[in-house]
Amino acid sequence: MDIGPHWTNLEDPDIIRLKLVGVVNLDHAQGVNQAHREFAQGLPHFFYLIDLSELDSIPAAVRKEAAGTLKDLPLYGTAIYGASLAARVVAKLLLTAVNLVRADRKNPVQFFETEADARGWLASRRELILTGQI
Q1: Does the model's pTM come out above 0.85?
Q2: DSSP of 67-88, one letter per residue?
Q3: Which of 43, 116, 120, 122 is the most buried (most CB within 10 A)?
Q4: Per-residue confidence at 68, pLDDT binned at 50, 70, 90?
């Protein structure tokens, strides 16, 4: 699903993919958040697989909008790949803030160079959930 220059979808069984491009504005963030609430509906858990290879910035108002949605979703791991140092800092700040207000604190955030490495880590997170270790 395209939302402005960004893209997101639900990949069965439990991965929400997201690619952010350029500057994320508030309208686009609200569209992404709405899509993610719909994707997560009925899922016992999900993971984020995020491509930040083309991200320029996420303004403060957009970070606040995202955090308000993420704190209520059954998110159990975020794998980010392709992020510049600046994008890593912004993503880490946003997701750390979300984790501070979540009671379960089950959303570790990891950064990877490649999508394949990110997917490997998500597969290990899924296995921990399926075996009751998380």
Answers
A1: yes
A2: HHHHTTS-EEEEEEES--HHHH
A3: 122
A4: confident
The pair of three-digit structure tokens given for residue 16, joined into one six-digit string: 């929400």
Sign of the torsion angle spanned by Cα atoms 50, 17, 100, 34: positive
In whole angstroms, give the CA distance from residue 95 to residue 36.
15
46-57 and 75-81: which strand pairing?
A: parallel
Please report which helix (H) or strand (E) contains residue 54, including its range.
strand 46-57
DSSP 104: S
Helices (H) and strands (E) in the chain, counts: 4, 6
Q: What is the dihedral of CA 12, 104, 66, 109, to 10 degrees?
A: -70
Instruction: Output the CA torsion sign for 28, 34, 37, 42.
Output: negative
Q: Above 90 in pLDDT, residue 70?
A: no
